[in-house]
Amino acid sequence: MTEDGGGDDGEASGSDEREGSEADDGLTYADAGVDIDASEAATAALIGAVGETEGDYAGLLDIGDRYLALATDGVGTKLLVAEALGDYSTVGIDCIAMNVNDLVAAGVRPVAFVDYLAVDEPDERFAEQVGDGLARGAELADMELIGGETAVMPDVISGLDLAGTCAGLAAKGAVFDGAAEPGDALVGWRSSGIHSNGLTLAREAATREHAYTDPCPFEGYETVGEALLEPTRIYTDLLDPMREHGVRGAAHVTGGGWTNLTRLGDHRYVVEDAFDPQPVFEFVQSEGNVPDEEMHRTFNMGTGFVAALDPDAAESLAAETGGRVIGRVEEGDDDEAGTVSIRGLEL
Question: Would you state the torsion angle of the CA atoms of residues 151, 154, 158, 160, taken in this order, to the nearest 10 degrees?
């Protein structure tokens, strides 16, 4: 099973109207409609029913001398922003990215992708836009897009939903152990923006005083909605360098924000030099009066991917890939085990 990622968002309106409650109320993800604790409990119940599988970010199937890896994820309520703007040209990239980045975090090279598009009614215009985004995402991930399914279900779907499954292959000695060790360095890489999780909270905050079509109050985008639609960065280019530098484990900073680091083991993760958040995060936090801790438990806050490895190799990996050493792994006592320290917060 994969973590809460692109498909972690609850119901919300896809209209261009302002949403939310009074602007002086501090928003949390639960307030916006997504209870992370309840979601994790439901996921645990599902895993308990179907049984554990080998692997964390991706399920690994032993096929002899290699693993076949599979990951499934969707775009989530970022689709509602696309619907409001009538622009679906980038959501296919998000669909690809949320899947392939999980494979990369496992140390697996993505090789093929199938998509699932469910709609309430067929529409050639947005279907073509979605297809163009999927093709671009597959190109960026350097893998094959081998087909999929389009389902027309007006009694089930309002608007559309987009998800997919990614297959990857890795030699058994090539997958990451997935476990950091005390003393390891943490190397991080910049995100492209809000990526494709936490959009229920982001949309609720952004539309308290703005419409998606309002001019964007910071540089780089014409509208508020365009800033929220910035496509998720794809990290497949990091796979070979991470292997060459002996990375032990990696974390895709997606649903759950910075707490994803604790998936690398029950240690204390001290982050001292994370990338600065892009203006979109400052905008969401300000508009929703969202607490710092909630922001870091929900969003990537500027750093989308992190790897743990021997400190002697960390600077070289960072220099070769445009990343940087952002922190370290500590033993941590009983109270600190399984925690992340970042920007004065203890998560």
Answer: 20
Pair 32, 188: CB distance under 8 Å: no
Element (H, E) at 162: strand 160-171
- Cβ neighbours for 58, distance < 8 A, ≥ 6 positions apart: 2, 69, 70, 71, 102, 103, 105, 106, 108, 168
Name the residue type at position 62: D
Beta bridge partners of 150: 117
CA distance 100 to 97: 5
Which residues are 74's β-sheet partners? 163
In the structure encoding, which two tokens stand for residue 35, read together?
């209870």
Residue in the block written with tokens 């209209």: 15
Length of the chain: 347
Q: Token match 């692997």: residue?
A: 55
Query: In the numeric block, which tokens belong to residue 217?
Result: 């109050």
Mean pLDDT, consecutive 10-residue stretches, the chain (347 aa), reads 41 38 56 54 42 65 95 95 96 98 97 96 92 97 94 92 97 94 98 96 96 97 98 98 98 95 96 98 97 97 98 98 98 86 96
Tokens coding 191: 């995100």
DSSP string, 204-246: HHHTSS--TTSBPSSTT-SBHHHHHTPPPPP-GGGHHHHHHTT
Single-letter amino acid, residue 41: A
